[in-house]
Amino acid sequence: MTSMLLFLGNLGATELVLIFLVVLLLFGGNKIPELMRGLGRGIREFNSAKNQVEDEIRQGMREAEKKPLEK
Fold first, then answer.
1. What phi, psi does 10 have (nearest 5°)?
2. Is residue 36 assigned to a domain?
3. Distances from the Cα of 44 to the Cαs of 31, 36, 40, 41, in angstroms?
4. Domain membership flag for residue 71
5. Looking at the domain assignment, is residue 55 inside a domain?
6. Can you give the pTM of this predicted structure?
7. Mean pLDDT per 10-residue interval, the chain, length 71 residues
8. Which of 11, 14, 42, 66 sits between 20 and 30 A of 2, alpha carbons compared?
């Protein structure tokens, strides 16, 4: 998410207005809310999957710490 914010930091107001107008022309006013809902749902699913992977890694590390070292 931070890289996305850094990308948007390089854009000025004129560029953002131009991008908004292009999106409005391509999708129309009725499709934009549906598009944003889909985008939000996708971001939520991505974050959920990322958190699951992080939890699995932490759990694996905890199990590895409990296991005695074998030589």
1. -85, -10
2. yes
3. 20, 12, 6, 5
4. no
5. yes
6. 0.55
7. 57 86 84 88 96 95 80 57
8. 14
Q: Which helix (H) or strand (E) holds 71?
A: none
In a domain? residue 6: yes
Which residue segment(s) compose the domain that 56 sits in? 2-66
Question: Which residue type, as a one-letter code, is found at position 15?
Answer: E
d(CA 60, CA 49): 17
Which pLDDT does position 2 carry in this prediction? 52
Distance, CA of 41 to CA of 35 (rounded, Å): 10
Label residue 38 exposed, middle or buried (CB < 10 Å: 0-12, 13-18, 19+): exposed
Using CA atoms, how far apart are residues 47 and 5, in angstroms rounded to an integer? 16
Number of domain units in the chain: 1
